[in-house]
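Pipeline run #58 for the internal structure catalog. This entry was flagged by the ingest filter as a single-chain record with no existing model, so it goes straight to prediction. Upstream metadata was stripped on purpose; only the residue string is passed forward. Reviewer on rotation: M.T. Logging verbosity set to normal.
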Amino acid sequence: MDFYKIFLSAHKGFGYLELLLVALFIIALLATMFGFSGKVNKFLKKTTLFTMIFFHVQFLLGICLLFIFSPGFKAALDAGTLMKDAYSRQTFVEHPFSMLVAAVLMTIVNKKVKSNDTISLGVAFMGLIAAGLFAFAFPWVRVFGA
């Protein structure tokens, strides 16, 4: 069996789950922020935790795909077109870096949500930035077509 295809299928499958979790996280975050009390509830804690876990799993699968199994990354690196070609730059530079920053921000948000009883505006913005970076880096065209 080809490990590249296995990892690519796993990365794609977890991507769909991540879309669902990010949507639930945004709903829970906005409901908590614009709710009357601003208190952190169990739903927000659980969605933040699972979103963070899936961000990390996705990132690890993606790094394995990028550095170990990807023939396109090695070819673009050898040809010197990694930053010159828009497709290669998006796939091999912007996508992994944005996902890394989003995973780090999600980890910070999870820590803040877990340790505080109320949510602050800074934590909410950090969570929205993490979701925005995820939305920026998500390959919408490749997943859902043109």
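catalog note: The two ends are 30 Å apart (CA to CA).
catalog note: The longest helix spans residues 3-34.
status: ready for reviewer M.T.
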